[in-house]
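Technical annex B. To support the medicinal chemistry partners, we prepared a structural model of the target in complex with NAP, based solely on the information shown next.
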Amino acid sequence: MAELDGKVALVTGGASGIGKAAARLLAERGARVTICGLDRADTEEAAADIGQGVRGQVADVSDETQVEALLAEIVEGDGGLDILVTAAGIQRYGSAVDTTGADWDEVLRVNLKGTFLPVKYALPHLRTCRGSVVIVSSVQAFVTQTSVAAYTASKGALNAFARSVAIDEAQYGVRANTVCPGSVDTPMLRMAARRFSDGSGAGEQGLVDAWGRTHPLGRVARAEEVAEAIAFLAGDRAGFITGVSLPVDGGLLAAVAVALPE
Ligand code: NAP
């Protein structure tokens, strides 16, 4: 019997990158998985690509009506919900001075409200089966770089939100944790590499490699490596783990930029 046999899971942002890898792994381990994404064609294509009975549903995670309907449909179709993974997210660049009010609102709406809403509508069902929530946050919840003011604010808030859910829901046996990746080779990272390699001469792959070298393990992560941490926290083997923020960062958070001379 597979580890997650009989479990029902929803993965937001599951049409791409980390969410897609997580959906694939949960399905491989026996869960009945729905992914949700913004674009119908992309979401259905991703579900078909993963196979294993994974279904694709279109929903904007920041729209309360759509999220409520999505959760109702899953619960009606599958008889409940055991696992929620929130991986939908966006990145916008700018310091506090450069970030427009519209960009700030968009990042907080998708990354933070777009996590709060699925959690809110999943919890009544998770409570009935001692289910679990895994929120995809970032090392940017702890440390930061230049020009990601809104994004880093959203990720710091997600870690705080996850702790709040963990404490409120512990009485029902529901667990809530975050994974906090460093750089991961996904469409989001590739988009950033294309944007910032323009004119630099380094090229997209050169920049991804350079970002990789800033991690002590010397490379960026594969989405599948983050998915392993997500699937572990989602399942019963992590039954006594709640309220934690797990770095999946190749040692990034363990390091300071100080070295003895060679
Ligand atoms: P990705 O490949 O861009 O995947 C993000 C997914 O979220 C996309 O499928 C996107 O759909 C979807 N999405 C965006 N807005 C949405 C909305 N309003 N409603 C529903 N779905 C929405 O990026 P990723 O790298 O896998 O990122 C996944 C999560 O990991 C994000 O929270 C990100 O912040 C976090 N993370 C990523 C890295 C990294 O280096 N890649 C590092 C740390 C944390 P569309 O493509 O249709 O917009």
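Notes passed to the chemistry partners:
The chain has two domains: 8-181+222-246, 183-220.
The two ends are 52 Å apart (CA to CA).
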